[in-house]
Amino acid sequence: MRKFFRALLRILLAPFRFIFWLPRGIARWFSATATNIREFFTEEPEDAPLPDAFAKTIENPMGLLEHVNALRRHLLRAVLFLAITTAISFIFARQLIDLLAEPIGGIDKLQAIDVTEPIGVFMRVALLSGFSLALPYIAFELWMFAAPGLSRRSRISGLLAIPAVVVFFAAGMAFAFFVMLPQALPFLLGFLGMSTVPRPSSYISFTTGLLFWIGVAFEFPLVIFVLAEIGLIKARALAQQWRLAVVAIAILAAAITPTVDPVNMALVMGPMILLYFLSIGLAYLAQRGRAQAEI
Q1: CA angle at residue 247 from 244 to 253, to 5 degrees?
Q2: What is the C-alpha separation between 143 and 162, in angstroms, rounded?
Q3: Out of 95, 150, 197, 286, which could bridge 228 as a Cys pair, Cβ 3.0 to 4.6 Å?
């Protein structure tokens, strides 16, 4: 009988115990999280030369598998978030298609031939929009993967650079949409005086591909900054190899440029050359900050 009343009393007092336990549980969780964050940003990894790290990896390949598994987890979360943002983009994908069709005179200027063509166009635009929305989180997952092997200063710099990733990508897409497309489309549509009625699949594929790759190209200064931050690239070496860089940029611009005329190619080369010299400045700042941190 006593056991019955004790069990009944525990059941009756369970809500009150939960009310008293909940604030303490939340407080312990916040305390543990704050401790982990503080340790994450203050702990300095072992600074081993690259040849020694490579030799250590050869001796213990299981350590490499751990990094591969960690990368797989980060990429899986990034892909799941990309799927979510792409699904959200379905809500306003039609408005984005109308916006992308403005340089050609509106969506009425496009003529579909295949039955599934409008669906393919819709999905392609939604995917580009979803990637743009998920870009901050994708950059954050890549930073989380690399952060344990970076110095405390590099971790903070990498975290602060995530908003810049979005800004540079958006600037690249804006440049492609407002500067390149108005210059390239009249040349392409009026070449040899032929009357052209673009298909939605070809036009949207051309437009989204151009926006995406120009946006990726605008990320070049941040990539150089990160490489200089971890000591793999020197600003002086970049400055000395500027002639070779201009040739490489010309080849890349020729691959990206949708037309073969030099005007549109120059429109791509000009910003990319400016971005290269901006990269030299960012590499110098990263190198200088790294040297001051080691003092």
Answers
A1: 140
A2: 8
A3: 286
